[in-house]
Amino acid sequence: MSDDGKRVLIAGGGPVGLLCAWLLGRRGIPVTLFDENTGPQADPRAATTHPATLEVLAADGLAADMARVGLVAPIFQFWDRPSGELVAEFDHAVLKHDTRFPHVVQCEQFKTARLILERLRGLANVELRFGHTVTGVAQREDGVTVSVHDGRGTTQHSGAWLVGADGGRSAVRKECNIEFEGFTWPERFIVLTTPYDFEAERGLCYRSYFADIGAWCNCFKVSAAGPPGLWRTVYPVDPAQSDDEVMSDDGVQARIQSFFPAPRPYEIVHRNIYVTHQRVAARFRKGRVLLAGDAAHVNNPIGGMGLNGGIQDAANLSDKLAQVVLDGAPERLLDLYDRQRRTVAVEFVQEQSIANKKRLEAREPGARRRNLDELRAIAADPERARQFLLRTSMIASQRRADSMTLEDV
Ligand SMILES: Cc1cc2nc3c(=O)[nH]c(=O)nc-3n(C[C@H](O)[C@H](O)[C@H](O)COP(=O)(O)OP(=O)(O)OC[C@H]3O[C@@H](n4cnc5c(N)ncnc54)[C@H](O)[C@@H]3O)c2cc1C
Questions:
Q1: What residue's CA is closest to ligand 1, atom 10?
Q2: Under a CB-based contact definition with an 8 Å cutoff, are residues 5 and 160 in contact?
Q3: DSSP classification of residue 29
Q4: Which residue from 105, 60, 42 is spatially nearest to 308, judged by alpha carbons?
Q5: Which of 162, 407, 399 is nearest to 295 (CA)?
Q6: pLDDT digits (tens, 9 = 90+) for 70-112
Q7: Which of 20, 35, 45, 109 is the pocket-test mutation for ligand 1 (most atoms within 8 Å of CB)?
């Protein structure tokens, strides 16, 4: 069999595409990865890595390396902004019999990508082509060809399989006419990053969620360039406000002060505003094309599940593709990938991330009280707290995926 008879093409060199390249490449499979950027990106995006994801990243010490360059956070808190009350605190220690990792690791996604790139450098069978944009996809019964533009011209590249890990606007998904079902939130989200020490000054832990009337804030710490680290705060933005107004110095100070009043202006080292969607691809497999990560599903960041789901896709898919390519396993295994990961995206990640947002932003006083009372009651009951954490840490969704077999497809 020629190399192309085994080669896996990957569109997208974000964390999901890079992880697929490493997990396939380390098994000896020839891989070509294309990314339209000229190199890995360093913009601040996802950071929270849940226990279920640390489990799949444990091989070759990747989870341990992430903890080394990130922050270990066993606890998260819910606060009520209007009253200033700490409503509930959850400790992952209740999961000590469910996982080897009873904590999350706050590791910025560009650091995770860098750790994977370091590992990829040792693999001669993996070719990384940055500055290459995938513009077309054509399938045959026994292979797939992509058209790739590199700024000078368009070339064709063939392989046995194509992984579309090219993000939320996935060209691969669009080329394959796969619907991206769901909706877009009317409000944008703004991220403000500051060196202000919320732990020392306000007693927050590394992951704190604030409920407000029609609003919310996620406040979490990242290690950034090393101690003392930075704090990221995320808020919803009124659709009636312009980007210029929201992103102005006055606008960002007004927003952060509304949650965390302080006598002096905050130092803001990074600000970013973005549109957020809740969408899942109608299918994750179409013939020889497989979608993973944001190309397959996107959600709001409350609960930090987006990239975690993408990493879990990459691990699940790479294992199955390796069985098909190397061991001659039936291609139906890839339908099982579709079934497992799409079910998890719909039943867990979409449902949970939407519920997280609604719980924090409830306006009606009775609903607010019920939401906060329920969090208090769950935190006070160890078994309910464990069940709650099994979902938030994405262990329950992994167990749901593991419960499915080839007989389900
Ligand atoms: C501003 C912002 C903030 C975020 N904050 C959070 C957060 O706090 N928590 C959280 O869980 N998630 C967050 N997310 C989502 C999280 O970043 C994504 O879930 C994660 O990046 C998904 O990884 P990925 O590899 O699937 O896709 P991406 O990281 O988007 O990578 C896709 C890659 O594909 C490349 N590409 C795109 N099109 C093509 C093409 N045609 N050909 C070749 N290459 C292509 C891109 O250059 C990119 O490198 C945020 C996203 C954004 C945009």
A1: 46
A2: yes
A3: -
A4: 105
A5: 162
A6: 999 999 999 999 999 999 999 999 999 999 999 999 999 999 9
A7: 45
